[in-house]
Backbone:
């Protein structure tokens, strides 16, 4: 008898990896959902026994999906599989009824342990004819979106642990941009606010680029309160905080990418672009640095505050074939 399983994730790569990781002994009859609303609709029509749920998704995220499952009294075991590994994120999903939490990238041995704890995998060996699963077709951008998703989760976790806060984790933007498009993206990030900015270079095995960390001026007051900055030393304390935030976000993001690409990245010391400056000043600092660049862009918000920190990774043109080669294994069947 087949075992009805729902896999809910906006990432085609994540859906494929999860489906391929399920043991044959489960005899899984797999259905895919691309976001929480899609999942709730499918749960209304099919009595699934097990659900694998991502947290960071469009339309309805994983937290909202768990709330809806609870509100509708849907009887299903939910295992959260996410790059958002903050302690407070894990606490919330268990409070909302999740049975287990697995961090991305997926580890098959951890998945096996979870399935055994839920007692959904037969302990006795059986003759199994694996069910045929129509796997998602992957594109190059799917790979980079999921790699970025894991990396931003690592960065959010580091920031959350350092400041003891909950970081709202958005979907990343991954694009290949010309210089003029990069400047437009920077202006959109700032949203006409003045910013304080830091730049850090990075490199590893021929892959190189720059990271920008931008903190809007509208975030400064809440940041001062959060860190209890003394009134007489605001500018100095703000600078130190900006440098700390840059090192935390850039370092943990690079570690997240490096873990997946098997590259050890080295980062330079942060360089101050300016405090309380216009975004045009930041734009001028990037002029001439790139012609085409692959960018990973994400905006972090700290819950209960107006603090917003924008992180933009820009890889130099020559790095793109090298990154493609490092991540080619993710395209394999």
Residues:
């Amino acid at each position: 008898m087949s075992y009805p399983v729902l896999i809910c994730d906006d990432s085609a790569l994540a859906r494929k990896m999860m489906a391929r990781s399920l043991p044959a002994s489960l005899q899984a009859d797999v259905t895919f959902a691309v976001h929480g609303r899609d999942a709730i609709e499918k749960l209304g029509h099919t009595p699934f026994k097990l659900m694998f749920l991502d947290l960071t998704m469009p339309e309805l995220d994983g937290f909202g999906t768990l709330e809806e499952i609870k509100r509708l009294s849907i009887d299903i075991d939910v295992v959260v599989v996410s790059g958002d590994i903050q302690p407070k994120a894990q606490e919330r999903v268990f409070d909302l009824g999740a049975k287990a939490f697995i961090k991305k990238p997926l580890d098959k041995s951890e998945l096996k342990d979870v399935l055994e704890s839920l007692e959904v995998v037969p302990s006795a060996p059986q003759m199994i004819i694996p069910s045929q699963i129509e796997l998602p077709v992957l594109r190059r951008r799917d790979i980079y979106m999921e790699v970025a998703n894991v990396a931003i989760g690592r960065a959010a976790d580091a920031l959350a642990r350092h400041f003891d806060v909950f970081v709202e984790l958005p979907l990343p933007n991954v694009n290949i941009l010309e210089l003029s498009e990069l400047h437009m993206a920077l202006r959109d990030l700032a949203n006409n606010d003045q910013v304080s900015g830091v730049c850090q270079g990075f490199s590893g095995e021929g892959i190189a680029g720059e990271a920008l960390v931008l903190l809007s001026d509208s975030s400064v007051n809440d940041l001062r309160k959060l860190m209890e900055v003394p009134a007489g030393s605001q500018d100095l304390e703000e600078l130190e905080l900006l440098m700390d935030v840059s090192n935390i976000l850039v370092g943990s993001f690079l570690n997240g990418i490096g873990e997946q690409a098997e590259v050890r990245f080295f980062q330079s010391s942060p360089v101050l672009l300016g405090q309380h400056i216009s975004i045009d000043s930041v734009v001028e600092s990037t002029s001439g640095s790139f012609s085409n660049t692959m960018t990973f862009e994400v905006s972090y918000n700290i819950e209960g505050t107006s603090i917003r920190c924008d992180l933009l990774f820009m890889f130099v043109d020559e790095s793109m074939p090298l990154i493609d080669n490092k991540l080619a294994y993710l395209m394999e069947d």
